[in-house]
Amino acid sequence: MIRRAPLALPHSFWLHLVLPRAVILLALSAADGVLRLDMRLLYGLVAADALVFLWQVMRFQASADNHLRGMGGMTLIWGGYLVLLVSGFASISLWWGSFLFAAQPETTELFTDRMDRLHAAEYQLSLSDDGSSLSFSGTITYGLTKRATELLAANPQLVTVTLTSIGGHIYEARGFANLIRARGLNTVVKGDCSSACTLLFVAGTQRRLAPGARLGFHRYALEFGPLLPNLDLAKEQEKDLAFFRAQGISEAFLAQVFEQPSSALWYPSRQQALQAGLLVH
């Protein structure tokens, strides 16, 4: 049996160490966090890579031994050992990352989709059986205007929006209110309609309170005050006072709308609401 002579050390360094390991590391890096492999396949690939690494060590060591017998220096040999050490640790790290990624539960949900789902869980929008009434309850939050727009577009027969809400995001409330006004929809309150919810109510063409229902008003407050230093609450209140005024609410009533501190609520009586023009039949 003829045994092949070891390659010259420089050739072995590049052919047996650098080139194969570079290909493997590049492939692992490209697949990291992208390609999710079955665990059994991963174990097989790790075993195969370990055999390749062992082959690299043996081929380089054979060339190193031959190099030493020819009275060659140690510089390239130590360089090869260093490449083996660094590439070995890199391989272990990348394979470990592949195992961690494979063990994670699969999810195709984008962050934006997740936030939309979480916000949508804070309120309910539902149609009546005949499609003439849209019921809104819960918190006015991000995404509400978009969902309401889609529902109104898909249901041109809608006549009434029923409201039960403690309020929420004023900009979303304005968006929904403008939709209600543009479509000429009627509004009805069941239970409490407070804070930003009153904008939705006042946007209605005809407006009424169900038995026991209440409207609650107070001054605006910032949920994240220090993060929005340039937001002028007085100007924001003036914008909504103008909206109320355009919907026929009396000036005497508007003078009291934002008198109550944000920590409390003012519930006008049904008679006060009627006199102010809040209720329209």
Automatic annotation (TrEMBL):
Coiled coil (residue ranges): none
Domain of life: Bacteria
Database matches in Gene3D superfamilies: 2-enoyl-CoA Hydratase, Chain A, domain 1 (3.90.226.10)
Residue intervals passing through the bilayer: 13-34, 41-58, 78-102
InterPro entries noted in UniProt: ClpP/crotonase-like_dom_sf (IPR029045)
Keywords: Membrane, Transmembrane, Transmembrane helix
Official protein name in the record: Clp protease
